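Sample A.
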Amino acid sequence: MAVVLGIDLGTSSVKAMLLDTKEGPLAVRAKGYGVDIPAPGFAQQAPEVWWASLKEVLGGLQEVRPKEYGAVAAVGYSGQMHGLVLADAAGTAVRPAIIWLDQRSKRQMEEIYRKMTEEEMGAVFCNRVSSGFAFPSLLWVKEEEPEALEKAAYLFCPKDYLRMKMIGQAGTEVVDASSTCMFSTPDRDWAWNIIERFGLPRKLFPTVGEPLQIAGTVTRACARETGLPEGIPVIYGSGDQPAQSIGNGVCREGWLVSNIGTGGQISAFVQDPVYDKKLRTNTYCHAAPGGYTMLGATLCAGKSMGWAKDELFHLEGYGQINEEAALAPAGAEGLVYLPYLAGERTPHMDPDAQGMFFGIRLGQGRGHFLRAVMEGVTYSLRDCLEVMQEAGIDAQTVIASGGGASSGLWLQMQADILQKPVRACMVKEQACLGACILAGVGTGLLSSLQEGCERFVRLDSRVYEPDVGKFGVYEEGYRTFRELYQRTKGLRACLNIHS
């Protein structure tokens, strides 16, 4: 028996999975936390909270599986992408991490667009620079908190901080590095000419490894804090999107993943660094050797449902949401929701985009609003899919993942709106599973990513087929959804002037 540990640092929780390389997943534990919003447009988290939460999660695994926990032979990582962590030489964060939801760097974005053309961004980054990415966030720190930048010895993406706490060495890997927009994605190395052009200290940029490489081993100090065996190898790991795709069995071309987590994405594995020439999607390095991932992203997917649950209707759980939303008809009788609560990426790339409900009438109840939120998020995923299709990326079947995949109603809705068969992965923590598979392959306990996917990924036998009877109402809803953004864009600018 060989046991590996996979850790996924998400936006709302950290999770960890123990996996037996013969038997499959043994146990999963999670610990939730919040996002700090100290001012409108700000979104940050304390790295110390991540580490404390991880130790609590690992303690839970040790409690339920003491023998297997003591036999862990390798550790793999997955984590939220784009965020900026600044740490001093001792590995202590010098300020809260600025995460992907953050929109504070509008002025810095203007500076970037003065000094770089979109063509150069595409050629170097394969991405448009957006608020919430580490590049503009770092420029914001440079301008607004120079004392923090002076204290910093390294910059990381979020999961890299946890790995450093575990192995005592600084570093990042190509997936997360390519999500910072300070990285040459085709070359799989830091974009040193861009870094120098913007006057950013070279000392901050750590060694970049490939996801399957061993980054170091568990230190004695970490072993004391976590109970993990000292000296076991820890691989670099991956940003959560490729890790999640591996956990869904997607590590080759020809598959699409629809993820509804805090944010939402439609993603695909590609062999080459293909990107949308209008820069409406994102292309990052993939965890599979030499590969890339192309994705369209919506910022507030599950976040929209959480907002509706907690702020609008004060519901206790998601079961009630599904029950009430199912009572409303497809199309929610003309009620349409735009999920732009924190700006939007694909296809608008607009940090100022705003959410709305449109078409409110007497006779509509709470179920209509809840269904409209689900449909609006799924319309946004269709926006992502259509841009991907323009770039020549498509597939016959969609693998659904994230919290949205636990709702049969939402799975059917995805099939109807995306107009493709949808299947769900039976392992609910796909990013953790992906991190486990990466750890196994990186340390030779598994022969390949393909073997890991075939052995441990199990898709639900049920296939949610598109209901052609609903195509008409959803086509009308989707047209309205798309028109709403365009038709209210000018009004929003007018309101901003007078606010």
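Sample B.
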Amino acid sequence: MPRVKYISFQTEQSNAISEANILCLGNFDGVHFAHRALLRQAKKLQAEQMPFAKCGVLCFERPSVDFLSSNPPKHLTTLEQKLKYFADEGMDFAFVADFEALQGLSPEDFVKDVLIGECACKAAVCGYNYRFGKGGTGTHDLLKELLAPQPLIAVPPVCLEGDTVSSTRIRTLLKEGKIKEANLLLTTPFSFIAPVEHGKALGRKLGTPTFNQTPPDEMLIPAHGVYLTRCLIDGTSYLGVTNIGTRPTVDADAPLNVETHLLNFDGDLYQKEIRVEFLDFIRPEKQFVSVEALQKQIQEDIKTARERI
């Protein structure tokens, strides 16, 4: 791909890059509450001082940590999800950059050649801890100096529920099964999109038919257990009960499996792309003494899900 790809969110698609752009800078994994504060600060700057400019985002196709860490964290969002959330917040466009093509640039060259040269940056918004350029040596203070006299707004830490909002904090909550707390910070339910796969029909044999999915490899998977979920199928939402785990009662040594029983649905779902949104944690995964005990618990899980709707 080119070093920087331009994607317009405007109704009338155009390949022409605006001559004056306000850029939000970052990785934006999750596009969470603090990220949206950056996006809204850019819209405020546009409305109050630069109505002639377009407002958008510069992010990487894959987060920079994927290349800089030997054990990078799993993602909270795919690129496609990020782009949707940017558009939802009123951004006009996104520049999607190839990190490997840019990581060798000095901070000075990154600003001169990429921000100003390729992206027509006339103002920028970033987080207080934004780093850029080779080795991450560029700080927001240096960026302000290099962009001058064009304005730079560095947004301070954003706190919610008594602590700084960050992708790291959200990952921790999800790994602990604290889905409601994570969703509060994300501002939208944690979700993934994946096709329905053939399973072993174990759910149907237990009287509760399910569909099976394998989330994208790069996506974080919440704690093993049972969740209340909302599933988007062909434009219609259905509530469901989703199990994440290895099904220890009926399938010893099985790999990780994500399976969902839909409430009030009957139909063929094989090979459909389904978005599963996690709404609430019902219980952790456990091994039952018998299949009958598992069947009873599944009915209890469904009852609990209906009570929480």
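B remarks: The mean pLDDT is 91. The longest strand covers residues 273-284.
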